[in-house]
User: Fold Thioredoxin domain-containing protein from Rhynchospora tenuis.
Amino acid sequence: MAGVRDVKSKTELDEVVKGGKPVVLHFWASWCDASKQMDQIFSHLATDYPQALFYRVEAEEQPEISDAYAVAAVPFFAFCKDGKTFDKLEGANPSGLAEKVAKLAGPAAIEKVQVNVEKLSGTEDASGGLNSVLKSRLEKLINSNPVFLFMKGSPEEPKCKFSRKVTEILKEEGISFGSFDILTDNEVREGLKVYSNWPTYPQLYFKGELLGGCDIVVSMKESGELQDLVKESNMSDSKENSGLDAQLISRLKELINSSPVLVFMKGSPDEPKCGFSGKLVAILKEENVPFKSFDILSDEAVRQGLKVFSKWPSYPQLYIKGELIGGSDIVLEMQKTGELKSLLEEKGIVEAKVETLEDRLKHLVSSSPVMLFMKGTPDAPKCGFSSKVVNALREEGVEFGSFDILSDEEVRQGLKSFSNWPTYPQLYYKGELIGGCDIVLEMHNGGELKETLSE
Assistant:
């Protein structure tokens, strides 16, 4: 790969960074599709910016380096200059990567870079316009359980009669299944319609193949076809597990169900042996989740067998009530969106609490290190003051979350009292109010804004 080198050791990398030249690091994993996509863009940027050094770090194989740069999920990028790390980027964000590289390394053929980013970021493909990251996410969801239902609501609280009907049928037939509430994620909701070429919900999948919606499931139940399909699957379970013997399968199932929340990890909660395992443990502790763990380094049969059994190629793996949730990147994203807390409450792991407006506001202002409450969105501001703050943050290269106060009158009025600040926009850093438009612009013009938002 032209212009890109692989890091062999922390000592080597430390010497490169100390050299003072602009350095861009890509932390990746071979099992991560988003890493592969971003790796192509990374390679092209290396060609477009020869004045910078581009290095790849295989995150799980270089845990010391991953820990040093606080890598919790891949893909992850670090930007170094003059011997220091001055910026980071988490996730598959092609345009964000191009912007940060340009800021680090100086002028380049910007139009060329933009073309490369648009071409490689997979904005269109054979799946009717789905980008590759979303397509990969949908496939992982669909294959996360042999029987998987995309529905409105949860099996315990369906939000439409058709979803309720399908869950009732599956429960009556004694079929265990995974589920996803499409009301919680509009990207999945709209994307799956394109992916499956099926315009409505619920959608039931069996071993990665779409069976259909409510009417088809009802018809299959009445004809006995649904039960026959599952029986046939159960009879071939050991074969489907790529040659795993029955004794190992039984042991894996016993381990998975040995605790309501179980983490298969490298090391122990007190002494994690990789950064990803450490991050997952930290998340569970932050959420006050009682859990047990299994050190996969202590048992090679379990370590290799579980990859096949779960169809998940890496560690850590989190299970809740016997169902695979995912690795550290998925759990981190679920924590950020609040989905993890909701799932734990739904499964009865933690006690559900009635969220007050104050609780909601505290969660919102802390949902991103830099959080902007504004009128409209960053791409379509609905007042001049909000637009000016967005432009100031972007000029400083500051990543930020946002909330459109026009979309929620309760938040709009409540935040005024919560912050004791009567107007919008309002900018927060680590849960603390910075101020409105005038203060932000004054800090921007005085060169204080980036420094304040990076402390």
